[in-house]
Design a protein that fits this description.
It is built from 20 helices and 32 strands. The chain is of the alpha+beta class and about 725 residues long. A hairpin with a 4-residue loop joins strand 9 and strand 10. Bound molecules: beta-D-glucopyranose.
Length: about 725
């Protein structure tokens, strides 16, 4: 269970830093090298610490003062990997323990060899705690070792400064503490580190540092440790006092690692999807996905998951529909309370959503396309420069990508139906359903007796400002139907819901068997996309065509109608799904990382397991690939969620409804898969082979299950075989 890079390469530094991030849902530390290298982006993030600097258009997740940098000198020679005298180089993240390690042998100018090991762990028990260890072992000679390290606030988000240094303190020559305040959001941050060695402290230019010097004899070990803490005013009245108190306690790197190992071992016992595949990569990709899903997700209703988790500055740390549709199900079926807290995050931000609706003359709640701490719209106005016009490209998602409203309602119902949690529904769900449904009542327009939804962007962001996007209309109807079913609002409102449902236009198959993605899509010209599909994810098409030219053609960035097929498996018949999957996939570049795995699920459902497997494998390679820069700005959170979705809802063939259905579609390469699945307060163990299904649970309560169309009652154990 390792992600490893066993060759030093300056080209892949930032990708490595992202992929091997250590964290715990509260904080994330990019896996940067201790030494500085050209273009290496350090990153330290705490969920919820957002700030907006003057002149910038959106709040961003603040890149916090660096605690990883360390200058090492041996006999006055500065250690660097930019030397050819390195052997036994290993750099890896152990997914089973959460520990990140670099180990190597280095030869100094004088010809002597040294073993150098750097280790890093983020506590899983005390979310504000993290630790580093450096071991130097002179193999040939005695030496003098110097270390310079501390807290470095000379950091920014791509040049944007977010922090004012309020206070710096030094105690006992081995405790460093600093207090910061964010410039616009006025959050206070306390950051402190305990060192296991006494040094000379200096504080200058937003850096508080210790310089330690020690002699070390041949074959002895120099062991240097830093244990750090970070608190913020988001959950603590006196963050500076709290870090100072925390750092007083002596605790070793080893102790923190032991505790973390235990937590990770418990995590894997509950969350791992175990596959017996001919391709070992499949297991690694699934483990990698589960690891990152866990470290990107705060278990706290005040916060949600950023598109890049806590691994980088990409998307400014904002929350998209990625959370509810791609990431939440992993928690819903593994640790439902975390899924609940993600929905509470939206509930607690109803004020911002209602204000956005009101400002745009709608009723109810229009959730922002991009959300941060406050819940108000955070989508930047502009994206990249348009290569044709030379002008900055307007981002229209905040104006028209309204499906997010129904996506949130969908997740509310998904949670409720999967857990049966009536208290949640009464306390949070109903209001969310009511306000989102109200939005759709006002968003629809009546045209010749039918309700249409005009001027939207569906999930496919290469198609803009269209009428009656099928995904949006079906999800809006689902949203309103859910509100009706849950009997939210008074009788008058219930009547309005009924009327909406009677009249809403749900695009259906045309004479050619196609479901139109929207009113105009099928009339647009088609171009050969082979070249762009081969380079999926690169948005290469935008270098050959202007955005408008892309919009005016049958070109999809990502699953749109196919997304609808995934979320509403029973809305269309098998034949329609099959024909439309082929039609639309052919026109989809998969330039969004959210696309391939969803296609894999729908392909598996139409019994195209091998095609599904191909798409699953390329989805697994969105971060885990040989290209140097695909993940520089952070992990693809939704894509990792979707890898898990593809395994469970694609290959294991689970369909949720009143009754849980299992129609496995294991690819040929998979002999077996096994996982736990929380469903209606039960925890099922599900083990599948090409021809058998084994279901187990602890309680004696009878649970109806449909297997390949036939209904069974599961008590504690059910064995099913195809023969
Ligand atoms: C995708 C969106 C997604 C966003 C954040 C965009 O490229 O088109 O669907 O929500 O990235 O991941």
């Amino acid at each position: 269970m390792r992600i490893e890079f066993n060759q030093f390469d300056e080209e892949t530094l930032n990708k490595e830093a992202t992929l091997m991030t250590t964290g715990n849902g509260y904080l994330g530390i990019r896996a940067t090298h201790e030494e500085n290298y050209r273009n290496q982006d350090r990153g330290f993030f705490v969920r919820g610490i957002f700030d907006r600097t003057v002149g910038t258009e959106a709040a961003e997740l603040v890149n916090l003062p660096d605690i990883t940098e360390l200058e090492l000198r041996i006999n006055e020679e500065v250690f660097s990997l930019n030397t050819s005298r390195i052997t036994n180089y290993q750099r890896f993240l152990d997914l089973s323990t959460g520990e990140f390690v670099r180990s190597l042998k280095w030869q100094s100018q004088s010809g002597d060899w040294f073993r150098i090991i750097n280790k890093r762990i983020v506590s899983q028990k005390m979310k504000e705690q993290f630790a580093f260890q450096l071991i130097v072992e002179p193999l040939d000679t005695d030496c003098t070792i110097s270390v310079k390290t501390g807290i470095n606030a000379q950091v920014s988000n791509g040049g944007n400064q977010h922090l004012i240094e309020r206070d710096l303190r030094v105690y006992d020559d081995c405790l460093l503490a600093a207090e910061y305040e964010t410039i616009e959001s006025h959050l206070t941050i306390g950051l402190a580190m305990r060192l296991n060695k006494v040094g000379t402290i200096s504080a200058k230019n937003r850096k508080i540092q210790t310089s330690i010097q020690e002699n070390c004899q041949k074959n002895q070990r120099f062991v240097f440790e830093k244990v750090g803490y970070i608190y913020s005013s988001l959950e603590n009245d006196q963050p500076f006092d709290s870090v100072k108190e925390a750092v007083n306690e002596e605790i070793s790197y080893e102790q923190i690692t032991e505790e973390a190992k235990e937590c990770w071992s418990d995590f894997w016992a509950e969350h791992r999807v175990v596959v017996d595949s001919q391709n070992n990569f499949d297991q690694l990709a699934l483990d990698f996905a589960c690891y990152h899903l866990q470290i990107m997700t705060p278990n706290d209703p005040q916060f949600s998951v950023a598109a890049k988790g806590l691994t980088g500055e990409g998307y400014k740390g904002h929350v998209f529909w990625d959370t509810e549709i791609f990431i939440l199900p992993f928690f819903l079926h593994n640790s439902p309370s975390v899924a609940k807290s993600l929905l509470q995050y939206r509930y607690l931000r109803l004020a911002g959503a209602k204000e956005k609706a009101r400002k745009n003359n709608y009723q109810g709640a229009l959730f922002p396309w991009e959300s941060a701490l406050t819940g108000y719209e955070e989508t930047p106005k502009y994206a990249a420069i348009n290569i044709r016009t030379g002008k900055r490209q307007i981002i229209s998602s905040a104006i028209a990508e309204h499906h997010i409203v129904a996506d949130i309602a969908y997740a509310v119902m998904d949670f409720y139906e999967s857990t049966g949690d009536q208290v949640f529904m009464d306390q949070y769900g109903k209001e969310l359903l009511k306000e989102t449904a109200l939005f759709w009542l006002s968003r629809g327009v009546e045209v010749n007796g039918r309700i249409e939804i005009h001027d939207v962007i569906g999930p496919d962001e290469y198609t803009e400002h269209v009428d009656n996007n099928a995904y949006t209309n079906y999800l809006a109807a689902y949203n309103v139907r859910a509100a009706l079913k849950q009997q939210v609002g008074n009788q008058e409102l219930q009547k309005q819901f009924e009327e909406f449902l009677d009249k809403v236009y749900l695009p259906n198959v045309n004479d050619d068997g196609l479901v139109p993605q929207d009113d105009t899509f099928l009339n647009k010209p088609v171009i050969d996309l082979t070249k762009y599909k081969e380079q999926a994810g690169n948005q290469l098409i935008l270098t050959d065509y202007s955005r408008q030219e892309v919009i005016d053609r049958q070109i999809l960035k990502q699953a749109d109608l196919v997304m609808l097929f995934y979320l509403q498996p029973n809305a269309f018949d098998f034949k329609t799904i099959k024909q439309n999957l082929y039609y639309y996939e052919n026109r989809t570049i998969h330039d969004s990382s959210l696309s391939k795995a969803i296609h894999a699920i729908v392909a598996a459902r139409i019994h195209e397991a091998e095609w599904a497997y191909e798409m699953f494998q390329s989805a697994c390679k969105i971060d885990l690939n040989d290209l140097p820069h695909t993940s520089d700005e952070g992990i693809h959170g939704a894509a990792l969620g979707a890898v898990w979705l593809a395994a469970i809802f694609g290959f294991a063939g689970i369909t949720k409804g009143e009754i849980l259905e299992i129609t496995p579609q294991l690819p040929k390469a998979w002999n077996q898969m096994q996982f736990l699945f929380c469903w209606k307060n039960e925890k099922l163990t599900i083990r599948l082979t090409q021809d058998t299904i084994l279901l187990m649970k602890d309680s004696e309560k009878e649970l109806p299950i449909r297997i390949e169309g036939q209904e069974y009652l599961l008590k504690q154990k059910l064995e099913w075989s195809r023969k």
